[in-house]
Fold:
Amino acid sequence: MLSSSIISTLTFASQQVTTYMGILILGAGLLGGVCNIIVFLSLQTFRQSSCAFYLMAMSFVNIGQLLMGLTIRIMIYSFGIDWTQSSLFYCKFRNYSLQPCVLTSVTCMCLATVDQFFATCSNHRLQQWSNIKLAHRLTAGFTLFWILYAIPCLVYYTQIVSPITGTIICTVAYRTFQQYNTYFTMLGLEGILPFSITIVIGSMAYYNVRRLAHRTVPLIRRELDKQLTTMVLVQVFYNIFVFTPFIVMTVVSLNTSTIQDPVIVAELQFANIISFIIFYLYFAVSMNLFCDE
Structure:
């Protein structure tokens, strides 16, 4: 009796958190994304900046992630509508589309950090690596690469009957790919690698910015570099906060498939909901960080 009460409470709490926090994050994220894109496109200073271009591209894919990822979660937990259960095509396509959005977003964050390092270097040859044409090519190249990289999601995601709930769920049936996707893609490509790059290169860019005052640099250029570097560094440390719970819970969930206790399963599902909400804060707040610049 007590276990049923705990499960009911956790299920209700999951629905409430997803509904209210999810809708709030979705609304703020979409508004912030549009605001960012308008700012980056309307100001000539930003239009000529390769770092600003990376941030604008990140805003576009973040909007896609919110629409394809968070919107569906709100529909599932708040209204009981799950299109991944009724359509095998949508099950595959949704999970396929989410991976390039996340990977492109963190890649743009890394490129923006590296770009600011080059832009603030005293070496003129290194400064030449910070240019808008290269930014266009790298963004297009990496986006295409991640779109191709995610193709296995179309193959391995499928609909199966859950042994716990007895309902149809959209998941990976091939365990080897699930482990690869979790440990290499999520933990490595979406977590450890971009965090390491942005922390190390971002610190170097910050060191360069502190030396700008001692160099002969036009005032407008100096202030723009300081502004963009500050944006990037704030984003770097914010990313660590929002990505870590999601990655930890993803790894934990992968290794608890044999748990039969319904209370523990409900607790893990609630923890997963919280980690997902924090995870989607990245796609919403990361865009709003730049909105007032």
In short: Residues 2-81+105-130+174-288 form a domain with the Rhopdopsin 7-helix transmembrane proteins fold (CATH 1.20.1070.10). Residues 287-293 have pLDDT under 50 and may be disordered. The beta strands are 157-161, 168-172.
